[in-house]
Amino acid sequence: MTSTAAFAALRAQLAALTTEAFRPELADLDRLPTRAIAELMNADDAAVAAAVAGQLPRIAAAIDAIAERMGRGGRLVYAGAGTAGRLGVLDASECPPTFATGPGQVVGLVAGGPDALVNAVEGAEDRAEAAVADLAALGLTADDAVVGVSASGRTPYAVGAVEHARRAGALTVGLSCNAGSALGAAAEHAIEVVTGPELITGSTRLKAGTAQKLVLNMISTITMVRLGKTYGNLMVDLRASNDKLRARARRIVAQATGAGDAEIEAALAETGGEVKNAILVLLGGVDGPAAARLLAAADGRLRPALDAARER
Fold first, then answer.
1. Distance CA 124, CA 22 (A)
2. Catalytic residue list contains 122
3. Which of 68, 94, 188, 265 is catalytic?
4. Model confidence, pTM
5. 20 is catalytic
6. Domains identified in the chain and CATH numbers
7. pLDDT tens digits, residue range 197-242?
């Protein structure tokens, strides 16, 4: 195919995408007052949650499948390009401080590598083979789950990542913002949040980016809930690495136990600052070493560890 023919084919593909569609009613956008443009953007954003709601059954099914893989030692890997890839890296980077995930347990891959987080790496998203190489460098296994993220649903890097992961036996999820996407077709679990044309034509960092962020929040957060990383709605696997988080750790222990300051300080001191262990000491009536053993026997889940402590 000649370069002219290839360009024409690509143009036709993009024209079929709702995320790339032109909104003629906004043709005079640049002439509007700032307040009016802000109101238009806000109205657009208000519709995103409803679009996500329409995909909740698919999102929940994907989360359950991811949690099952991670429960047996697998990893959660996001793969995308541009805004989509950066959102995956952002979500992955928040998991260690929030849920004390281990090194490499949640991974974000962005086409073009770390430089692409702050600079556009031209052509990186078009290389499916780069996604294969990036996943190979991780030593991808059948226990892992790979989530390809692409607003258009056709980005070669994201589609290539999902296709390679599926061949390797890993769980695959395709998150896009167009119906009937190539990414969705390649994945076992297709999540297609159709947000429609953007305020600025083709700028999918807007509604599409917001939708992807909402879904990624759900995937990581609810997966961690399923893995026992919370106690109720308290993040008891918090890694207290600074003064703000140490204060939050004390507050979480107080909210979970109702204990006084002196008791909380003693429990945290006895457990090396581990929130979950400190709660078990206070509610289960055990010492620090016993709390650690009970949690290990319960795969780190606080509720069954508490039940076991109370039965002693």
1. 26
2. no
3. 94
4. 0.91
5. no
6. 48-226 (3.40.50.10490), 243-310 (1.10.8.1080)
7. 999 999 999 999 999 999 999 999 999 999 999 999 999 998 777 8
